[in-house]
What we know:
Elements: H1 2-17, H2 54-64, E1 77-86, E2 107-115, E3 130-138, E4 141-148, H3 161-168, H4 184-192, H5 197-203, E5 218-219, E6 224-227, E7 233-242, H6 251-260, H7 264-274, E8 280-289, E9 315-324, H8 329-334, E10 347-348, H9 353-369, H10 450-458, H11 461-476, H12 481-494, H13 496-506, E11 540-544, H14 551-563, E12 567-572, E13 577-579, E14 585-587, E15 590-591, E16 602-605, H15 609-616, H16 619-630, E17 635-638, H17 641-647, E18 662-665, E19 668-671, H18 680-691
Parallel strand pairs: 11-12, 11-16, 12-15, 16-17, 17-19
Antiparallel strand pairs: 1-2, 1-9, 2-3, 3-4, 5-7, 6-7, 6-10, 7-8, 8-9, 13-14, 18-19
Amino acid sequence: MASQSRRDAKDEQLDQVRKDPQDTNLTTQQGVKIDHTDDALTAGERGPTLLEDFHTREKITHFDHERIPERVVHARGSGAYGQFQPYSGWLSDYTAARFLTDPQEQTPVFVRFSTVQGSKGSNDTVRDVRGFATKFYTSQGNYDLVGNNMPAFFIQDGIKFPDFVHAVKPEPDTGIPQGASAHDTLWDFVQLQPETMHMMMWLMSDRAIPRSYRMMQGFGVHTFRLVNAEGRGTFVKFHWKPMLGTHSLVWDETQKIAGKNSDYNRQDLWENIANGDYPEWELGVQLVDESREHDFDFDLLDATKIIPEEEVPVQPVGKLTLNRNPDNFFAETEQVAFHTANVVPGIDFTNDPLLQARNFSYLDTQLIRLGGPNFSYLPVNRAISDISTHQRDGFQQNRVHTSKATYHKNSLSGGCPAMADDQDVFRHYQEKVEGAKISKRSESFKDHYSQATLFWNSMAHWEKDHIISAFRFELGKVEHTHIREGVVEHLNHVDHDLAVAVAEGVGVTPPSTAARSNHGKSSPALSQENSVKDTIATRQVAVLVADGVDSGEVEQIKQELTDRGAVPQVLSLRDGSVRASSSGHVQVDARIDTLASVVFDAVVVPGTGESVQNLSADGYSVHFVTEAYKHFKPVAASQEGVAMLQRAGVNGVRHADDSQSVANDHGVITAVSNEGSLPSEFFEEFASTLAGHRVWDRDTSHVPA
């Protein structure tokens, strides 16, 4: 019941500021009713506008000031409300944070996903890091886990953060490129800062182009510290693992989606929540006893490093579910303010130099962006626990403080607010700190290549191919040859074959020998090849039809896919409906040329000669199938639908026939129907292939682009 009341408390806070425009009259900001808002007050119909028209002045003035500065990084984002609930109380031995240890406690959350480099007007599907920031409205105060979809970072010390961001942002003379990292200033920074190499391997991998926010991992990046009720500390790294698995787009898709739907990831999140397909992630932790701090071949305080899961397993803690979209993008998603220093009892910091700088920077940023020190009272930011401080006044103060005493200690207000002495008090972790004042990096931070090599070694063959292609694309945009050469030189410390492949693609001399031997270690957990592949829930499937299609077969396909959790959409050459082969019509969800294969996960072409002939005569429909096949997606057809696949260039594969009613050749699933009904094996094969996301062993070299 207490957990329910906490969720209700957050909802009540938001209800207090929601305004429903129905059954109300238009007024000014002072509550004065208005009966005309289309024409300003003038002296005569064609005369000058009069300054006394307070409504016009107020309306325009507010409009002139209704934009706030966008975030310098993570400007383009999408958010949602939900809840987090622990599985059990086992973590109470390590932390006093109740939201992590009480299985009866459902903590309200707000999560914001984002890209990093681009402005608010950039595209969703660019190659970039993705932000994954979670605000927990806990009973002990607000806790912000401000992370990314990659577990490492570009730099080791926060003093370099302005340099990195200046380098990755659009170049100052041209303002180009927007929402992209393929330009000289970034790669110049990279080639002069070898500590970036591990993160650049992640950025050049498919992790930088996620299929959706719902299929994206999240990481706290830093090593934090859990503190239990007795004051004992344990190092911790936080992991979010999507229940749908970790899946990505392919590079050609991302560029085409950007033209078809620049809001692809944001719309995907919104629509799935609206449809009741609530995204879920499991929170896991890697725990390291303080006695083991120096047992690794890297420094736990180095944010450019990870702890391989094979060395320290990720232990599941609880589940995050997002189940409600915001009511107003600006008021909630845009004004939500995260801060790495927003911690609760049981969670504390380490001496990670990047984390220490973030603890300063986030608050400083919000003071400017949100107009002063009272941004924490905005509904989306406000804690559900009691707030009682001596802080007063300032821009946007909306509380009416009645206490006479605004200082501590005092006797005029009964000594209140008084010092707390219960278990919810935050007490900083006590550790002995000593040393000379010095600007110098620890020697334990000096290995910049071993984990980059670990990442490379852990990739499947198709992931390695994509990384090489990404480096070639990015460096191919770099105008200065010496920058390309510098990056290749660093890659030669990561892996010689990788460096040679990249060099040959970007027109620089390949290194003749390896600068450093490959240590041969790998971490299978880093590869998306080993992600969850047991569900097709929320997968988008295009069902292509035209006049003459078998309506029974279409309904069977839709029902079978829906029963398995997928989302079939019937596409045709026109909107409305198409004529069925026997009688009646088949309802169409969208016209084929208003969409594209890149926004679907698979394609099915039902049989029936007339329908297939009509589709085969349409170039866009043929290209739709060709493109899906080229992007390694499952492609299915029945009966005469096979002819459509052949027309699309899907040749040389094994098709079903009288001796075998269902065939699956490298993700091309075909079937022979029996009395107008497709065999169950067809749908089992299709679902199994679709759950695998892509068919990476398919040879598409013969298929035209």
